[in-house]
Design goal:
Structural class: alpha/beta
Bound molecules: adenosine monophosphate
Mean pLDDT: 81
Number of helices: 26
Largest sheet: 7 strands, parallel
Low-confidence stretches: 459-467, 548-590, 595-607
Radius of gyration: 34 Å
Number of strands: 20
Distance between the termini: 83 Å
Length: about 600
């Protein structure tokens, strides 16, 4: 790796680099800086955001800018106001030792008159969004006929935002002899066209493979039911008390809803979406950038160009449709050598999309389990205790003044009692919230297999059932009867047609000679009344709540022989026998229902 000293930068610029705290050039800087300083070839850089591209073009351009003329010499186009301001700010910092070089940012949604005034300033380097640049060119204020460098930053994003025509207009208004530098994470056809038509023998710099996510980002996913997404989000956030991240949503509406809910639930969050005024956007961004806001809930469009360093997390509240959008989102964390985490909250049907993104980005995704209530409480508690330990108490603080009185009030309590009460008081809300909290993880077939191998219990726990208003019913038919889950669903639906609403049926556990089925708790009793004791093909159904089953297990076991006899007796009085039912032969051995494969359809023959 070379050092900044070997790239041809002047002492003035090297001083600015030192002031920025940059020690070594990044790969994109190593290749781009000398190429610009030597008036070399056009450059296409397929580098992800966070690779140091602003300094790669900014440092040499500042160095070569002639401050004795008032002409605009460089035009840098960027997709959003945010990015535009960020680039202008960075370039101003590179020009800290070349104060006469003037840098002006021009972008939509802001007073054009003050931008016109600044352009007359002079403006050696102009950073702008395409629409506003065209407007200023049309007004004759921005003159780009003599520029030496044209930079297209995040070119694919500009295209996505509909600036295609503006980019072509600008390109064709600039002098032939300019050096064009194009930065793009991807190469859609229009960008290829720009390269072919407007760039001369460009040198291609690929930093990592196209579409490859940043190396230091860990990709995690959590599988939950769609309706549990928000609860899962909260738990994931709860496990990282110092989280600083962006939560990506699909729509403005969803962005608003999630941000509102988070705020209501006491999280330090806010929304960024297209319905906000420019002033509101600026305020939210200012709070986020200064870390006064921990979670920014945003749409992809609103978050474009947000260049905030040190994000610990990017959270995909919903997976984007396009795998490349995922790569862009996750590239917002893990910048400038820092590590980051990209989290996706998905439901089972989205697993194949995770596999697709894995393939495109060449990254392995790690499946994580939504933390349990216990884990979260422990995490919060330890974080709180850490805070207490690290809290400075100045002898002249307001607290100190009250200490003698406080000590006296607490004097009748032991140290252990004080600690216990203090913590109980502090954690009352958290504990109450997480009491009986459900397991939000969706169990995949592979999990069930794994649990079985380890001899662990599979399926939903009681807290889950209660929380979701689901009851778990026992039915005395199982695999031995050659039934499938769909047969049980058919049976329940057939027997409960008279219910005012269709019964929602959840998880079904098929065991050897009995099954468990989850149903709406509100219909559980009716279902039991409608089914328990009914006879199918001479076999008497036993349907009851699992809780009762557990309580009555012992007595039921004693009754099992009786039940068998009863079944036999009931068969004997089965009217179908008299009607010459075609399944009559099965009853002779008191067969269980459905045992004859050809008889599957008979599951709904109720009496
Ligand atoms: P960029 O890709 O231009 O958005 O830069 C990403 C971040 O990396 C910015 O915060 C830069 O200040 C920082 N950065 C750029 N070049 C270097 C470098 N050579 N060493 C350390 N940090 C850098």
């Amino acid at each position: 790796m070379s050092s900044f000293d070997s790239l041809g930068l002047s002492e003035e610029l090297l001083a600015a680099v030192r002031e920025k705290g940059f020690e070594d050039p990044t790969p994109v800087q190593e290749r781009t800086i000398p190429e610009i300083l030597n008036h070399g070839r056009d450059i296409i850089s397929l580098a992800q955001t966070g690779t140091g591209k602003t300094a790669a073009f900014g440092l040499p351009i500042v160095q070569l800018t002639d401050d004795l003329t008032s002409q605009t010499q460089a035009l840098i186009l960027s997709p959003t106001r945010e990015l535009c301001l960020q680039i202008a700010k960075d370039i101003k910092s590179f020009a800290s030792t070349r104060q006469r070089v003037q840098i002006v940012a021009v972008y939509g949604g802001s007073d054009i008159r003050s931008q016109i005034k600044q352009l007359k300033g002079p403006a050696h380097i102009v950073v702008g969004t395409p629409g506003r640049v065209i407007d200023l060119i049309d007004r004759g204020v921005l003159k780009i006929g003599n520029i030496r460098w044209l930079v297209l930053d995040e070119a694919d994003e500009m295209l996505n935002m509909g600036f295609k025509d503006d980019i072509e207009t600008i390109l064709s208004s600039t002098p032939e002899e300019r050096q064009t530098l194009l930065f793009s994470a991807t190469m859609p056809p229009f960008i290829e066209k720009v390269v072919g038509q407007y760039m001369k023998d460009p040198m291609e710099i690929r930093i990592g493979k196209t579409n490859e996510g940043a190396a230091n980002v860990e990709h995690q996913y959590y599988i939950v039911k769609a309706q549990d997404r928000y609860l899962a989000l909260k738990r994931i956030v709860d496990m990282v008390p110092d989280i600083y991240g962006i939560v990506f949503c699909r729509t403005r509406q969803e962005t608003k809803e999630i941000a509102d809910k988070l705020i209501e639930d006491g999280y330090n969050a806010d929304a960024l979406h297209g319905d906000l005024s420019q002033a509101q956007r600026d305020m939210v961004m200012q709070r986020f950038r200064t870390k006064h806001l921990q979670l920014l809930v945003a749409t992809d469009v609103a978050a474009r160009g947000i260049d905030v360093m040190e994000l610990t997390h990017v959270i995909n509240y919903n997976l984007p449709d396009d795998a490349e959008v995922y790569v862009h989102r996750s590239g917002r964390t893990g910048r400038a050598g820092k590590s980051g985490i990209s989290v996706s909250i998905i439901h089972t049907r989205e697993l194949n999309r995770i596999r697709l993104i894995e393939k495109i980005s060449h990254k392995k995704f790690i499946r994580c389990l939504v933390p349990s209530a216990e884990e979260i409480c422990q995490k919060k508690l330890l974080h709180f205790i850490d805070g207490v330990i690290n809290q400075d108490v100045d002898s002249d603080s307001t607290v100190s003044a009250f200490l003698p009185t406080i000590m006296e009030s607490l004097s009748m309590l032991s140290k252990e009692e004080i600690v216990a009460k203090f913590i109980a008081n502090e954690f009352e809300t958290v504990n109450r919230y997480y009491q009986n909290a459900a397991d939000l993880n969706v169990e995949l077939a592979e999990d069930r297999k794994g649990k079985k191998e380890k001899g662990e219990k599979s399926g939903s726990d009681n807290a889950y059932l209660e929380k979701h208003d689901i009851a778990r019913l026992f039915i005395n038919i199982g695999k031995i009867d050659h039934i499938k889950a769909t047969d049980i669903i058919g049976l329940i639906n057939d027997y409960n047609r008279k219910l005012p609403q269709k019964v929602n049926i959840g998880h079904i556990d098929l065991n050897r000679n009995f099954s468990f089925v989850e149903v709406d708790r509100k219909w559980a009793n009716e279902i039991i009344n409608n089914m328990n004791g009914k006879v199918i093909d001479g076999y008497k159904l036993v349907v009851e709540m699992t809780e009762e089953r557990a309580r009555n297990r012992r007595s039921k076991e004693n009754d099992s022989r009786k039940e068998y006899k009863n079944n036999k007796r009931e068969y004997n009085s089965n009217p179908r026998k008299e009607r010459g039912d075609k399944n009559r032969h099965r009853s002779k051995d008191n067969e269980r229902p459905f045992s004859n494969k050809n008889n599957k359809g008979k599951k709904s023959n109720k009496k």
